[in-house]
Amino acid sequence: RVVYVNGRYLPYAQAGVHVEDRGLQFADAIYEVCEVRAGALVDRTRHMERLERSLAELGIRQPMSRAALSIVLSETVRRNRVKTGLVYLQITRGAAPRDFPFPRSGVSPTVICLARSLDGAVREARASAGIAVATMPDTRWARCDIKTVMLLPAVLAKEDAGKAGAQEAWFVDRDGFVTEGASSNAWIVDRDGTLITRALGHELLPGVTRRTLLDLLSREKIPLIERPFRVEEAIAAREAFVTSAFGLVMPVVRINGVAIGDGHPGDLTRRLRSNFHQVAELCR
Ligand code: PMP
After folding, report:
1. How many distinct structural domains can be found in the chain?
2. Which residues are catalytic?
3. ipTM confidence score
4. Which of 59, 84, 118 is the last residue of a domain?
5. Does Nucleus appear among the keywords (predicted)?
6. Which atom of ligand 1 is nearest to the CA of 210?
7. How far is the CA of 34 from the centre of ligand 1 (A)?
8. pLDDT single digits (tens) 75-90
9. Ligand 1 in contact with 87 (CB < 6 A)?
């Protein structure tokens, strides 16, 4: 395996960053995770758009052009011979002696890119079984729309979910409404077959998989309402699922130990999962 770090492709075991990298000290960094399918990048344009927005929101200088970053992504995928998997890109504000304000000048962002193969069969088996979700209070900050590496609340939530026998956590805001998953967007299907997912805002990440699924919904004329929903409404829903570049459209069959619908992945969820890549962009 090789890893891209600041212009070089290094052996996995030898790659590293400076001890005073601001990504390590302050989580002063953003990232993207993009699906790799048949060796190609899925929805690269949308991932690049979100990455550029995250950088701009934090005032981190874009280290290279979108075209150059795209080459880093595909070259990392190619050198690791990934056909089915993920590519991870992280950009930090750079390395400088520890001090809270942005470093003055002459500090360049750190760029890291890793690619990893995934067992597609394992993921499909997981999708056929569906996953369990546990809900937790949303303890994150007020700008969850920026994809920062400040992921400790998600780490703790996933750990707690695991202890409760669940594979994903759903964050719940102070008013009892689901914001999103720890690493996914949350969806339900109501009794009429209408899809419900929270509208975008500062409380949740604008998922690329979410966005592409919206295209599929309008193409297939499936009714959608973008609004918050409560845990109780989700538990009473006909179907539930989460979306992410990692899990794609992943059926949810239990919430806090209660079966959703008949306790199996819903028909609409399964259809959306199998048709998802018809609308996604594929870049070689
Ligand atoms: N919300 C959060 C908090 C996430 O970490 C992720 C995955 N990165 C998502 C939603 C899903 O986003 P995407 O579809 O772009 O993977």
Report:
1. 2
2. 147
3. 0.99
4. 118
5. no
6. 14
7. 10
8. 999 999 999 999 999 9
9. no
